UniProtKB/TrEMBL annotation, chain B:
CDD domains: REC_OmpR
Name assigned to this protein: Response regulator
Species the sequence originates in: Flavobacterium sufflavum
Pfam family, one: Response_reg
Residues with 4-aspartylphosphate modification: 52
Response regulatory domain span: 3-119
A single GO molecular function term of this UniProt record: DNA binding
Xref: SMART domains: REC
Annotated GO biological process: phosphorelay signal transduction system
Alphabetical keyword list: DNA-binding, Phosphoprotein, Transcription, Transcription regulation, Two-component regulatory system
Length: 900, 120
């Protein structure tokens, strides 16, 4: 394939990525860019060109050694659900934007530690970027069948590298606040992760099933090759140890590699996305490894004696079989793997470079005195230049140093260097006593050992192959041989370096931390990091600070970096959160921490502290005092929590009380109404009796027939009075539950007949025709006959009373259901309005209806009926068909289905 | 001869009132609720009305409101009789324009005296 053609394809591919980044940047809140899958796939930035090409090379040369790099992460990822969540929370509340911020903040927001971590990261990662450029360059030359030109200006890969550097610097740093999410880049990275996996699977399937005849075929053909068995067994304890150390550093790498820290923590939008990542990422890694072995050994079989670079088998195989399309596809997959690593790494390194090295050590002074727009421009520009220069620096390193090493070995050196941050990093999460001095000592000693056991020998290997440094040790001292330090001769060079560097690093971190305890600020952050879950909502409370500071001074500083608008908004939010009066002039510890946080995204933790310190006067606090304050604030938080809980409880109780009170008030009103009505009902017959008596008393010459009439009045009104009293007592008995119901088996038709008979005179008087539809068989129900007669008597009396004056009709019907029997009593008198259907069963419901008497007689009859029926577990209700009188229906449990 | 309209839904009370007022030389009209009273008032102009408060259909208060709307009935005196004997009930009755509020039970003799006093 021609160089020009491939360059064109690359250009199209880059434009596509550019477009994806651009598109998703604009839709940063849509579910297409903000979802757990994009997050999980962006974490697969772990798989670089090293995975894509290097694994195959390693598998072809030494069998299973490629696996630990993936096993390590797969083993450790499940712990993310706890550990990663904590790191994310710590980073979120402190606005941490890089691994350097994370470690340096924990050890007392130390400027020097941040710079050290930045330097270590640059040392570890820039060669790693170089490795990616090497992969792009090597594979470009393979695909185009050209050779790398020694003149960098005529080498096409130089221009690819410049294009990449431009792309990364343009898109990687649009925001001055480094803690802002970069949805565009993350989405593009996730898409690339999918593409590189898909392309890798395509070539895997192609080699396994089209070039060969499945896994078995490859195995059969490979097993006759030289050293096959030896390469494909773990090979005893020493190799096991080699494996172990490789697993260990890759476990660390998945946490600490700056690009992993960036994608997993800084770009995390929601904690719950972790839940998807912990299964999707291991699955991704497993899928990536399925075809490594077939491709590697397929290559070994095809190119057995040709001595080709086994790293590039995945390209060579389709090329060998003249499949141009697949060759380009594979190349694009590798290109994706490489550039996603380059972009993310250079972004995060540039942020570290500016926030932890350049600003705190360089131009912080000048930033303090310029306007916000200028500051923003300068910071963004410095990061852009940083990204660009880091990539170009990596390219230079590639051209000068690493031309001859395989991808895997450079990558592993990178891992070992980065792993030096592990003791300080994990110590930050779990050990409150870890101190800055310990962290610095550990990192420096560990790095020096790496330098001695790995970097010097590799550097010598590329420049001076005649040196005896590696074989015999410096000055011929065998104990100092870099690959067999202190006589440790059974580990491979890299595991050996891991062992010594991490051992020394870890022990010195431990020893120095225990011997020299940190200052109060370290202890303060230690508390906030280790107990993050306690401080997650009010972390500003946990910050210990004493001194004098004016809010207005700090406000001025904030405006320099955030602008007036955002500063105002931030202050309002702060005042609201802690319920602080806006006229308050003196800044407290919470405000200092809040202001530092606001600046951290822009200029890093260390510089934020320096800038704030420049306008405040801090008093020194002793360590015991810090511990006391922390203890108090912890107690405060607990007390606050308890207070909130108990105030919530109180609220609940008071709500319940209110409801109960309302009920009581209602009951009281009802009681008053009841009494009112009862007295009214009692007074009415008394009035009639009194009037009649007065007439008889005052007039002795009253005619006999008139006298008879008034005497009759007195008798009937007295009876009425008595009935009323009976009813009130009845009702009272039902309401207080004193009324007993004596259930027995009864014939309902008989009960109805008996009741009708007792009312015969009234029926005849009003000339009413009563129609009672009798059933052919006996219907028996379970009830207290005396009580049901009371109900029927009341209902019939009402029916008679309200029957039409002429041509009055009453009909009675019994229906038998499976569970209930029902009795319907209909009269053709006036209808009852639907809105009164329920109310007529209330005792004296007219009390609520002001002064209009209800249509049905004294207020108590139906209320008592309802009580009686309900005591029988039945129901009573009214039906009114328009123009056709009123029907009252009640039900009683059917004898056949109730307990005997 | 003075005319009186008695409005009450309790037949036994009405009977006593009717007997007593007739004996005291009143021409007596009877209504069993507010609506009936208003119907009678269309054709008759009594000197005094005895009005119960709690009645079916149209209560005493709204009956009085209707009466007060009628200029023809301007000089009609009104006595409420009611078992509702609370301050607020009495106040309400008087504020609507009744001349007297008599609580049940009452003395017939005294009621007649009060009625005659009102008319003269």
């Amino acid at each position: 394939m021609s160089s020009l053609g491939l360059l064109l394809i690359l250009a199209i591919y880059l434009v596509m990525l550019f477009y994806i980044a651009h598109w998703s940047e604009k839709r940063s809140h849509s579910k297409w860019t903000n979802n757990p899958y994009i997050y999980s796939f962006s974490l697969a930035v772990y798989c670089t060109a090293w995975t894509y090409y290097g694994s195959i090379g390693l598998a072809a040369k030494s069998g299973l050694d490629y696996l630990p790099i993936y096993l390590g992460p797969i083993i450790i990822i499940p712990t993310w659900i706890i550990i990663l969540k904590r790191i994310i929370r710590i980073s979120r509340v402190n606005k941490i934007t890089s691994i350097a911020d994370f470690i340096s903040l924990r050890y007392g927001n130390s400027r020097s530690l941040g710079a050290l971590v930045t330097l270590i990261s640059i040392f570890g990662i820039v060669p790693y970027i170089a490795l990616q450029l090497k992969a792009i360059s090597d594979t470009f030359h393979i695909v185009t069948k050209t050779h790398a030109s020694s003149n960098i200006f005529t080498d096409n890969t130089t221009y690819i590298c410049i294009a990449l550097a431009l792309f990364a610097s343009y898109y990687g740093n649009k925001y001055v606040d480094a803690s802002e999410k970069r949805r565009g880049i993350v989405t593009a990275i996730a898409i690339e992760s999918i593409l590189k996996l898909v392309f890798f699977l395509i070539i895997g399937i192609y080699v396994t099933y089209f070039v060969f005849d499945g896994f078995e075929d490859i195995y059969t053909k490979a097993s006759v090759l030289e050293n096959f068995d030896k390469k494909n067994t773990i090979g005893g304890l020493t190799n096991g140890l080699n494996w172990f150390f490789l697993c260990l550093i890759s476990m660390f790498a998945i946490f600490i590699l700056p690009r992993q820290f960036h994608t997993a923590i800084v770009e995390n939008n929601q904690e719950k996305h972790i839940r998807t990542a912990i299964w999707l990422l291991p699955l991704y890694l497993l899928l990536f490894n399925i075809f490594v072995f077939p491709i590697a050994w397929g290559g070994n079989i095809l190119f057995e004696t040709q001595g080709l670079n086994s790293d590039t088998y995945s390209l060579l195989i389709p090329q060998h079989l003249n499949n141009n399309f697949l060759t380009v596809i594979v190349f694009l997959g590798g290109f994706s793997a490489a550039i996603s690593m380059i972009i993310v790494s250079s972004i995060t390194l540039a942020t570290m470079l500016s926030n932890n090295l350049l600003i705190p050590y360089g131009f912080i002074g000048s930033l303090e005195n310029t306007s916000q727009e200028k500051n923003t421009k300068r910071i963004v520009l410095s990061r852009k230049i940083g990204i660009f220069s880091l990539i170009i620096l990596a390219y230079i390193i590639y051209r000068v140093f690493v031309l001859d090493y395989t991808l895997v070995s450079i990558g592993l050196v990178s891992f070992v260097i980065i792993a030096q941050l592990a003791p300080a990093f994990f110590g930050a999460l779990f050990w409150k006593r870890g101190s800055k001095k310990g962290a610095v000592t550990g990192i420096i000693l560990g790095f020096l050992i790496c330098f001695y056991t790995l970097l010097i020998p590799y550097a010598l290997g590329t420049t001076n192959s005649a040196s005896t440094f590696v074989q015999k040790g410096p000055w011929g001292i065998a104990l100092l041989k870099p690959f067999q330090l202190f006589g440790l001769d059974y580990l491979d060079p890299i595991p050996q370096a891991v062992f010594w560097s991490l051992l020394v690093n870890f022990l010195s971190y431990l020893a120095v931390s225990v011997s020299f305890s940190g200052n109060y600020r370290e202890r303060n952050y230690a508390e906030m990091f280790v107990d993050i879950d306690e401080y997650i909502t009010n972390h500003e409370n946990a910050y210990v600070w004493k001194g004098t500071a004016n809010i207005s001074d700090i406000e001025k500083i904030l405006e320099r970096f955030l602008g007036i608008e955002r500063t105002k908004r931030a202050l309002t939010i702060f005042n609201l959160k802690y319920n602080i009066d806006k006229d308050n002039k003196i800044a407290d510890a919470r405000f200092i921490k809040f202001a530092e946080n606001l600046l951290t995204g822009h200029i890093g933790t260390a510089s934020a502290k320096i800038v704030i310190a420049s306008v405040t006067k801090e008093d020194k606090i002793s360590l015991p005092e810090v511990l006391r304050i922390l203890e108090e604030s912890k107690e405060n938080i607990v007390i606050n929590k308890k207070l909130t809980e108990s105030s919530n409880e109180l609220k609940k109780i008071s709500e319940q009380l209110q409801i109960a009170n309302q009920e009581l008030i209602n009951k009281d009103i009802q009681k008053d109404e009841f009494l009112d009505t009862v007295t009214h009902e009692l007074r009415t017959p008394i009035t009639a009796i009194r009037a009649a008596t007065e007439i008889l008393h005052d007039d002795e010459n009253i005619p006999a027939d008139v006298r008879q009439k008034f005497l009759q009045n007195i008798i009937s009104e007295s009876d009425r009075l008595n009935r009323l009293i009976d009813k009130i007592l009845d009702l009272e008995k039902f309401e207080t539950g004193k009324q007993k119901i004596y259930l027995s088996k009864n014939n309902i038709s008989k009960t109805i007949n008996n009741t009708l008979e007792s009312l015969q005179q009234l029926i005849i008087n009003k000339n009413i025709s009563v129609k009672f539809e009798k059933k052919s068989h006996e219907i028996k129900a379970f009830y207290d006959e005396e009580r049901i007669i009371q109900v029927l008597h009341n209902l019939f009396s009402n029916a008679i009373k309200f029957c039409a004056d002429t041509d009055g009709k009453i009909s009675v019907k019994i229906n038998e259901g499976s569970e209930f029997i029902s009795v319907r009593i209909h009269n053709n008198g006036k209808e009852i309005k639907p809105e009164e259907f329920e109310a007529i069963f209330d005792k004296f419901y007219q009390a609520r209806n002001q002064n209009v008497k209800k249509p049905i007689g004294s207020g108590l009859g139906l209320a008592i009926c309802k009580k009686i029926i309900e005591h029988h577990k039945g129901k009573i209700w009214v039906e009114s068909s328009s123009g056709n009188g009123t029907t009252i229906i009640f039900t009683l449990p059917n004898y056949n289905t109730t307990e005997k | 001869m003075k005319k009186i309209l008695i409005v009450d839904d309790e037949p036994n009370i009405v009977m006593s009132l009717e007997y007593t007022f007739k004996k005291n030389n009143f021409e007596v009209f009877i209504a069993r609720d507010g609506q009936e009273a208003l119907d009678i008032l269309k054709n008759q102009l009594p000197d005094i009305i005895i009005l119960d408060v709690m009645m079916p259909m149209v209560d005493g208060y709204s009956t009085l409101e209707q009466i007060k709307k009628e200029p023809r009935l301007e000089h009609c005196k009104v006595i409420f009789i009611s078992a509702k004997n609370k301050e607020k009930d009495i106040e309400k009755g008087l504020s609507l324009g009744a001349n007297l509020y008599v609580t049940k039970p009452f003395s017939l003799k005294k009621l007649v005296e009060q009625a005659q006093e009102l008319i003269n």
